[in-house]
Amino acid sequence: MLTLKLISEETERVIQGLEKKHFNGAREAIGQVLAIDKQRREAQQQLDKNLSEAKKLAAQIGALMKEGKKDEANTIKETVSAMKETNKQLEEQMATAQEKMTTLLCQIPNIPYDEVPEGKAAEDNHVVKSNLKECTAGDTVGNWDVNPSLGIDNPLPHWELAKKYNLIDFDLGVKITGAGFPVYIGKGAQLQRALINFFLAEANKAGYTEIMPPTVVNAASGYGTGQLPDKEGQMYHCEVDDFYLIPTAEVPVTNIYRDVILDEAQLPIKNCAYTECFRREAGSYGKDVRGLNRLHEFSKIEIVRIDKPEHSKESHKEMLQHVEGLLQKLELPYRILLLCGGDQSFTSAICYDFEVYSEAQGRWLEVSSVSNFDTYQANRLKCRYRRQDTKKTELCHTLNGSALALPRIVAALLENNQTPEGIRIPKALVPYTGFEIIK
Fold first, then answer.
1. Is the pLDDT of residue 94 over 60?
2. Which residues pair with 305 in a beta bridge?
3. In the chain, what's the furthest Cα-to-Cα distance?
4. Cα separations in angstroms, 164 against 144, 172, 302
5. Tell me, what DSSP letter sits at residue 70?
6. Are 332 and 364 in contact (CB under 8 A)?
7. Is the pLDDT of residue 19 over 90?
8. Higher local confidence (pLDDT), 152 or 299
9. Which of 150, 157, 110 lies closest to 132, judged by CA?
10. CB 355 within 8 A of CB 367
11. How does DSSP assign 162-218, residue by residue?
């Protein structure tokens, strides 16, 4: 969540940032925060004044008792007793104000960096890079007219290829669980495992320490990374135990550092994790969710960084290069989008999406989002580091990204590599699959 210091000292910048994110009632929400903080501070000042006065009166009581002035001492005791009751009320006021403020702050999104473009929706996102053509300033999804032609005659969509080559059984998944839970079979399952191992091996080469976290987390973890309360309706909830199935490995891995003070020398911390991910995707329907396009359970490798503020932009750049390198090795047509303010997530300060082209579907598929959250998550997590020079503690910056999510990568690989002889496997992936073609 946003820090009270930032809101108090840079109120107009915060309001303008929230408006860039198209957060309704930005000025009113920030005004409420400041009003509650004023109430809390006034109660604190009165409490401090009362405690100081009570200390002086306590000294007077002792002196009066020694002088035998018992009646006068008892009168002061009554005053102190009344002050204690007042102090109790002030403490309750402060606790109530703090609770209200925390609840309100959790409902206010992060503010975007200055370089985040204006815009309301996905068509306003800027196309900043592609391996199809040079991008120029001002290119947006709405005016992007470059779709590759891979020279495939009558390409089949991946759900038909999956059936033709017996790779994925969508109907069996419906029988076992429901829509959005496919069953991978034979070389389809091997392809999944190969991609997982390939992505983890590449992350290891890039210096990421692999983590194998739980895929079920408590509510505190969901609040720590900002999924709760914002995305509660999208998460599977185990009501008896009040646990949540993770929507991404970002949640358990980042929460490793909840309530932790790190040494500056430890930063940046680089972790990666392979997990299953679970998303209810309520309200999803139509062609955009057919096949592997949108699932309720899927495999994903996540990269997570914890860094100090002055280095986090460099970390973000390195993460973007890592994800781009994976797509290059998989020989997929891709583009990189800088998301506009209105299309950014609740918690991000800046986010880039990676999309790959689906030849058979004639559309771009998002396969990764790489975000810098600045101090927003760290403030909720109380994730701090101790500076070597001043020995003071400061909030860390947190970053994460998909490297990569498997379903749409598999869809693009199948569709873009279909040939009359079968489905070709990219050269970089062959050591992990053990085969060069699916026949």
1. yes
2. 270, 399
3. 109
4. 33, 15, 31
5. H
6. no
7. yes
8. 299
9. 150
10. yes
11. HHHTT-EEHHHHHHHT-TT--EE-THHHHHHHHHHHHHHHHHHHTTPEEE---SEEE
Mean pLDDT of 92-103: 94
- Strand 261-263 vs strand 168-169: parallel, antiparallel, or unpaired? unpaired
Q: Which residue has the tokens 């992990």?
A: 432
Query: What is the spatial distance between Cα 94 and Cα 37, in angstroms, rounded to a whole number?
Result: 9
- Tens digit of each residue's pLDDT (9 = 90 or more) over 283-319: 555 556 789 999 999 999 999 999 999 999 999 999 9
Q: Pairing relation of β-strands 393-395 and 384-386?
A: antiparallel
Q: Let me know: does 7 contact 32? Beta carbons within 8 Å.
A: no
Kindly report the number of other CB atoms within 10 A of residue 41's CB atom: 12
List the single range of 96-100, 230-234, 336-340 with lowest mean pLDDT. 230-234
Q: How far apart are CA 321 and CA 307, in angstroms?
A: 17
Give percent of the chain with pLDDT exceeding 70.
98
* Cβ neighbours for 109, distance < 8 A, ≥ 6 positions apart: 18, 21, 23, 230, 346, 347
DSSP for 292-323, please give it: TTS-SEEEEEEEEEEE-GGGHHHHHHHHHHHH
Residue 279 pLDDT > 90: yes
Cβ-based neighbour number of residue 74 at 10 Å: 13
The four Cα atoms 281, 285, 287, 293 give a dihedral, to 10 degrees, of 10
pLDDT at 285: 53
CB atoms within 10 A of CB 326: 25
